[in-house]
Amino acid sequence: MEGVFTYLGAIFGHGQMLFVAHLLLVAAIIIFIAKSATKSLRAVPTGAQNVMEAYLGGVIAMGKDVIGEELARKYLPLVAAVGLFIFVSNVIGIIPGFESPTSNINVTLPLALMVFFYYNYEGIKKHGVGHYFAHFAGPVKALAPLMFPIEIVSHISRIVSLSFRLMGNIKGDDLFLWVLLMLVPFIAPLPAYLLLTFSALLQTFVFMILIYVYLAGAVAIDEEHEKAPDPVVDTMGAV
Q1: What pLDDT was estimated at residue 173?
Q2: Judging by beta carbons within 10 Å of its beta carbon (0-12, 13-18, 19+), is residue 110 exposed, middle or buried?
Q3: Helix (H, G, I), strand (E, B) or coil at 229
């Protein structure tokens, strides 16, 4: 937000360098967390290791119901890394004097594009180009000319949905906090900090669960559809 005081803005000024500086700050925080969690690994985790293991276990549990435990573990590095980056980016904007990198479309759009290309790549890798895109045509061949462009638009709209949802919500939170701090002292809006922290967690969770959902749609086999009985055959058999 142009003109709003930030500690890094006092050094780098307001512009692209401020945006890059906050990105580097988030990266440094994440590296510090990772180093702290892996500095002295123990069979019975304590401290940062315990927190990180609980986080990774939660990510697996999140994906287990969506895509199965095996695939949830396979895609754990992607989902956990993206989730940690988004959460730290969201939270530092709650601290007066800092800005959330995720309130900038230049961060959320590349994240959405990365997810979009990755889940399509995984789907093509598993099913092959022809079989993967054949799913876009739907189960009824007569409706394929209608369903295929609808599915293409639907998949492309996920980029807009992922990027603008995250950016819009975090930008709104930053503006809300900015206005609140202009009206009341720092201590008075403490309940608002709890609300903004919950919002940061919620937006992180939504982004992470959508990654699993999109991956599930691309790579998971619809066994019920493949094993669905043919009504014609069943009728002839009954006769």
Answers
A1: 86
A2: exposed
A3: coil
Specify the DSSP class assigned to residue 227.
T
Distance CA 102, CA 109 (A): 10
Structure tokens at 235: 């009728």
> Which residues, other chains included, contact 100 with Cβ-Cβ below 8 Å and sequence gap of 6+?
22, 89, 90, 92, 93, 94, 170, 173, 174
238 is written with which tokens? Answer: 């009954």
d(CA 194, CA 198): 6
**pLDDT tens, 127-186?**
888 888 888 887 777 778 888 899 899 999 999 999 999 999 999 888 888 788 778 766
Nearest to 104 by CA among 57, 171, 12: 171
Give, in degrees to the nearest 5, the angle at Cα 171 between 170 and 172: 90
| Residue 188 zone, left/alpha/beta (φ > 0; ψ -120 to 50; rest) | alpha
**Residue pair 180/137 in contact by the 8 Å Cβ criterion:** no
**What residues does each domain of the chain span?**
9-227
Per-residue pLDDT tens digits for 22-65: 899 999 999 999 999 888 888 777 788 999 999 999 999 999 98
Tens digit of each residue's pLDDT (9 = 90 or more) over 192-236: 888 899 999 999 999 999 999 999 999 875 543 444 444 433 433
